[in-house]
Design goal:
By secondary structure, the chain is mainly alpha-helical. It has one domain. Helices cover 75% and strands 0% of the residues. It contains three helices and no strands.
């Protein structure tokens, strides 16, 4: 974070140090301080997350450009392989390119099978769901006599 943002702070002393504080005033002050503390922590976390997201966006932009260059380069690799196979084994050009096409289809099929297997393993976040249910149950039981 390059710019300083104003984050609310909790006052450490009362406005009038000689004043006697009542229980209600102390509770009000504690509530105010807790609210200010939570807001300050939230703002700090938000600032850190935004800064990290900006770094991630810049890094991913470089990766996207690299993938674009790689994808255009693959065309030349496949052309080289097609011509190479036909030259190395004295095959007609169509046979060299046919072999390259066959290898590409086999590779694509294998990658599809691997991807489908990985996608079938995706499960719901059971721990998070259980924690959320526990929280809801605890908050709804709050008014009960138990």
């Amino acid at each position: 974070m390059t710019t300083r943002e104003h984050i609310a702070s909790i006052p450490l002393t009362a406005d009038d140090p000689t004043a006697e504080a009542s229980i209600g005033g102390l509770v009000r002050d504690a509530t105010t301080h807790m609210s200010t503390l939570v807001r300050a922590e939230f703002e700090l976390a938000k600032g850190e997350v935004v800064a990290e997201l900006k770094k991630g966006a810049k890094g991913s932009a470089f990766l996207v450009v690299a993938l674009a260059v790689l994808s255009f380069s693959m065309f030349f690799l496949f052309m080289t392989l097609g011509f190479g196979f036909s030259e190395w084994w004295n095959w007609p050009r169509w046979a060299g390119f046919g072999l390259v096409t066959l290898l590409m289809l086999i590779t694509a099929g294998a990658l599809v099978l691997l991807g489908v297997r990985k996608l079938r393993k995706i499960r719901a976040p059971q721990k998070s769901i259980a924690a959320a249910k526990d929280t809801v149950a605890a908050l709804t039981r709050r008014g009960d006599d138990n």
